[in-house]
Amino acid sequence: MSAPYRVGVIGTGKPWRTEGATGFGMAHSHVAGYQKTGRCELAAVCDIKRDLAEAFAEQYGCAGAYTDYHAMLAEENLDIVSICTWPHLHEPMVTACAQAKVKAIHCEKPMSATWGEAKRMHALCAANGVQLTFNHQRRFLEPFQKAKALLGEGVIGALKRIEGTCDNIYDWGTHWLDMFFFYNDETPPEWVIGQIDSRTERSVFGVRLEDQAICHFKFQNGVRGLLICGYEADLGCANRLIGEEGMIEIGWQAPWLRVRGKGDTEWRVVETAEGIHDSVGIDRAVADLVACLDSGERPLLSSDNAIHATEVIFATYESSRRRGRVDLPLTTEDSALLSMLEANLIGPNAAAS
Ligand SMILES: NC(=O)c1ccc[n+]([C@@H]2O[C@H](COP(=O)([O-])OP(=O)(O)OC[C@H]3O[C@@H](n4cnc5c(N)ncnc54)[C@H](O)[C@@H]3O)[C@@H](O)[C@H]2O)c1
């Protein structure tokens, strides 16, 4: 067998719900995934907080602990880097990894704070043959896989529409929109019409969020997507696939999957051993990206796929700014939400119109 891949981590964090944790400490989940592959060696880790980097290195038996990721990239000859920092840091870190000629980058979602950053990362890695993935790990969980399989078997006839609901279109919505593209075989979007309301100061992982959002879009194959987010958003399920001859629903709690398809007079529960939050999805995502480095195939979490969900998020913000439909590709670079908040056009400090 060939030598193990040398893995590095940027943003070790502290495990979720431990004292001093600033988030979920996603790096711990990524490393658990690498360890299970049997193909990887944790070579070096980095966090701007020295105590976190050193504690993480000690916990996982790794020699290199850094506080500067540029130094780590210069010295460690890494094959794979996991980026587990907050979204506004993803682009400079992905760029530095690509310039250091790593083979693969596995970055946490959402892709970025602005659409320009997402486009640049995606293009840079494509141009340099760097495998870039974003951790939309739910694609690997059983309820979603079974829903897609049922759709593929024709149980609800031709797909017409996909619906979803969640807390916000950016941090949570990136998962659901990514699932929409998964269900619809990665068909690109054609147009987006949306509206957002931002009346409080909400943020997550350093990025401001809207309080409510509605996003209606068309895929290039005619299927429609509808995502409703935030205050009083409720569809009665988490995801709904509507076909010409039935429906499939993914729930927020067990039973996770049910279907009312051709010939069914009632909803039918489809048993699953996994729910929609299980961490095994992260292990499988890592296993897949490592296997794809060996085979040269495209990983399921490739930025080629993630870019579609990201475009729909920023096009929804842009549609709200333009007060109209946005035909894709989206040509702006910023986040219209962030720009409008900065200019006090929306948000708690907005001038009354
Ligand atoms: N895929 C999922 O289901 C899922 C779940 C939770 C969070 N996330 C995402 O994971 C990302 C990270 O979230 P988290 O909760 O793990 O964060 P966290 O706060 O637990 O960890 C981030 C770490 O990055 C470090 N950091 C900041 N700047 C740095 C720099 N310049 N160099 C090195 N390290 C630096 C911080 O000190 C911190 O320890 C976010 O984008 C979040 O949206 C994804």
Question: What report would you give on this structure?
Answer:
With 353 residues, the chain is of the alpha/beta class. The chain folds into 2 domains: 153 residues, NAD(P)-binding Rossmann-like Domain (Rossmann fold), CATH 3.40.50.720; 174 residues, Dihydrodipicolinate Reductase, domain 2 (2-Layer Sandwich). It contains 10 helices and 17 strands. The strands form 3 sheets. Strands 16-15-14-13-7-12-11-8-17 form a 9-stranded mixed β-sheet, covered by helices on one side. Strands 3-2-1-4-5-6 form a 6-stranded parallel β-sheet, with helices on both faces. The chain has a two-stranded antiparallel ribbon with strand order 9-10. Strand 11 and strand 12 form a beta hairpin. Helix 1 crosses helix 8, helix 4 packs parallel to helix 5 and helix 5 runs antiparallel to helix 9. The longest helix is centred in the last third of the chain and has 20 residues. The termini are far apart. The relative contact order is 0.14. The mean pLDDT is 97. Bound molecules: nicotinamide-adenine-dinucleotide.
Walk me through the topology:
Layout: E1 5-10, H1 26-37, E2 40-46, H2 50-59, E3 64-66, H3 69-76, E4 80-83, H4 90-99, E5 104-107, H5 115-127, E6 131-134, H6 142-152, E7 159-166, H7 173-183, E8 189-197, E9 202-204, E10 207-209, E11 212-219, E12 224-230, E13 239-243, E14 246-250, E15 257-260, E16 268-269, H8 280-295, H9 303-322, E17 326-327, H10 336-342
Helix pairs in contact: 1-8, 4-5, 5-9, 7-9
Nicotinamide-adenine-dinucleotide (NAD) binds near residues 26, 46, 69, 89 and 205.
